[in-house]
């Protein structure tokens, strides 16, 4: 069964945050390593918040598209596209993970 990109990202960010927390509690962590792990932990927390925002916009666009009485499907499709691109961009750093799906790969940069 294919994993949803949101679930994939949530799991990766939660795993990264857990690893940072584990390293922060280790004895003998150098100050530079502590700074790096604390920053990585804050980044993971920020990415989790961003997933909530993008995921909410995605769900909202899907719901409105399904309930579209006025035929505004193109507008909702555009909203879905930006959320899909944002999620795919966030997943790009995990392309070597076994659960990463090629369908998430961005093929071109957009300007």
TrEMBL record:
Pfam families: DUF6221. InterPro entries: DUF6221. This is Uncharacterized protein. It comes from Arthrobacter sunyaminii.
């Amino acid at each position: 069964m294919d994993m949803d990109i949101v679930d994939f990202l949530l799991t990766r960010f939660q795993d990264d945050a857990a690893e940072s927390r584990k390293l922060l509690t280790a004895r003998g962590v150098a100050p530079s390593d502590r700074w790096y792990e604390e920053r990585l932990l804050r980044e993971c927390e920020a990415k989790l918040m961003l997933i909530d925002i993008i995921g909410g916009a995605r769900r909202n666009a899907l719901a409105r598209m399904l309930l579209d009485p006025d035929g505004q499907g193109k507008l909702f499709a555009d909203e879905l596209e930006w959320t899909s691109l944002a999620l795919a961009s966030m997943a790009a750093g995990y392309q070597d993970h076994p659960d990463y799906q090629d369908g998430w790969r961005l093929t071109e940069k957009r300007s």
